[in-house]
Every structure is written in structure tokens, then in C-alpha cells.
Amino acid sequence: MGKGGGSGLPDTRVNDCPVLLDFRKRVVYSSYTSLINIESLIRNERQILVNTLRSPMRNYNFILVLIFLVVITGCAGKQAFRPNCATELDAAWKELDIAKAKGFSGSVSYTKAVGLLSLAKTMQTVENFDNCVKHAKDARYYITQSRLGR
Description:
The chain is an all-alpha fold. The protein has helices at about 20-75, 80-100, 105-125, 130-150. The protein has 4 helices and no strands. The protein has a domain at about 80-150. Helices cover about 80% and strands about 0% of the residues.
């Protein structure tokens, strides 16, 4: 019996044919090179993805710092009316203590003044000092009007 395994056909094993052997080496080499290229592409894509994900985080941190600075600056600017608010409120409460309302119109003005002073105190508590001063001045006006009976 011959190499064909007893069938009488020529042997078709790849190792015996130099052309097929050369072709097989080329396929293996090109597959190996393709795998290397694919790995490098995957590495590059992964790096691009990581950089893309990091970029918004940098922007996000920058925006947070910017918002923080704006808030801090805004809070610092609210302190300008603080002493005026306290002074106006104290003066208005003292005037209210000695005020005697004349008639019904005076009682209405007195009630408006009390409401405005309560609102001014609330504005002082929440550190809205400019509105505190405004309401305290309005309250003092109504206290004066209540004494006059208007």
C-alpha cells in the first residue's frame, strides 16, 4: 500500500506540497500581523475612550469651581447693608414701643408697621440685608403715620 492510506489515491497532506506549505506560512504570518494590528487598534481606541471620558470631568470640575467662586462672591456682597439693617430695625422697634395710634386709621398704619418690622426681621435672619433696610424704613414711615392718625 502506498502513502494514500491504501485507497490508491495520491497523498494530499499539506506538509508534502511546498506551494501549500508556503501559502500556509503566509496565512499564519498575515493572521499574526493582523492580530498585532488589531491589538494596537484596540489599545488606541481604548486610549481615545479614556481621554474622551476624562475631558468632561475636567470641564465639570472647572464649572464647579466657577460656580463656587460666584456664590462666595455673591455672599460677600450681601454684607454691605448689615449694619444699616440692625440700626433701622432697632430704631423702628423703639419708635413702635412709644407710638400711640390715633383712631382707626392710626391702628391700620400701626398694624402695617408691625407686619413690615416682622418681615424686616425675617429678611435680617436670612441675611437679605438690603430688603431688611427697605422694610424697616417703610415700617418707620407707617409708625409716623399711625401717630398722626393717618
